[in-house]
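Hi everyone,

Forwarding the result from last night's run.
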Amino acid sequence: MNQHRFSANKDKKTAADKADSTSLGAMTQTRSSGPEQSINRILDATLAAASKQGLRSLSMSSISRVAGVARGTLYRYFPTKEILLESLAQRTRERFEDGINEAVSTATNGRESLVALVEFLAHYSSETMAEYLLEAEPHFFLEFLRRYFPHYSEVMANALSLFFDELEESLGCSLDRVLCAELILRINTSYVFVPSQRSTEQLLDSIMNTLNRMALQT
């Protein structure tokens, strides 16, 4: 089973550069004509640059250079940096929702859906370079979490309906599903702040034990 963690790198700059290169490599593969491709390249470049240098020193000129688009193209889609950042947040939210639902879509039982969701969260945090963005721009990162945390918890509660159905039947009681989903999300978020060597299986066992204790107190 893959390790559910953010590796504690000795050389943060090297790791950030590697993540930056990976993101830009993915961008290059999708380069083609059309507004959607240009917008995605711009948003990818914004995420990569912000996670590396922060927002204060982030300029529209540097974004257009990294994205490989003309400044006129950048300003046509995003007239200001504020609009650009809001669009990045919106895309991140949409990709989270789509990814969660896709991850659990093939699960045949509750345990499989929980495993798929936890593994998605680990992959998603890495893909969005959450660790580097937290270091480079903590205010933006934390504000994003505060803004979308309640919504993300509801999305996860709905995605884990099969898991909660089976768990409630096993326990013989009803659970606050949104609260349980929030707990899982908070555990995952803690991995951004405090890296762990725990495997996915160990994390799942901890989640199950915690949910069982919560049920006994209801």
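Residues 71 and 181 are 42 Å apart (CA to CA).

Cheers,
N.
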